[in-house]
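Below is just one:
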Amino acid sequence: MELAWNSWNSYDTGPHRDLVGELAAAVQETTDLRFGLYHSLFEWFNPLFLKDKENNFTTQDFVKMKSMPELYELVNRYKPEVIWSDGSGEAPDSYWMSKEFIAWLYNDSPVKDTVVVNDRWGRGDICRHGGYLTCNDRYNPKALQNRKFENPMTIEKPLGIRRKQT
């Protein structure tokens, strides 16, 4: 399977099948469910990301060579109607080129009429933008909200992997 941004995928390494494609087809062709994908904007240990971080996110090598090509390809290939972005972190949305991607997504993409996104597209965006809000872990608005939101709670408090987690 040709991927513009990466040769490491389940088709070329592993089971030699397009697992995401098979799941997308199963959901889209046999159910009334909306198919969605999780996408982590950053990779904590990717050398390109680490170099951009070292440059205080004034360079965008990781975004231009990995993150954005990956997102465009995921949308064009699998046509997800939900994109759950995970990229609030340290870098602003300008680093991630989020506005440009979301403008394309809602105006020109193959899912422009049906897609919905959350709000984790850069530092400071959480609980402010998006088709629905993904506020902090264990978010409790304490009152009825005008905006749709989700609360993806962790089992334990930390987000990420902990080797000694119980």
Observations:
- The chain has a mean pLDDT of 87.
- The first helix runs from residue 19 to 30.
- The helical segments are 19-30, 47-54, 61-78, 93-96, 98-107.
- The first strand starts at residue 36 and ends at 40.
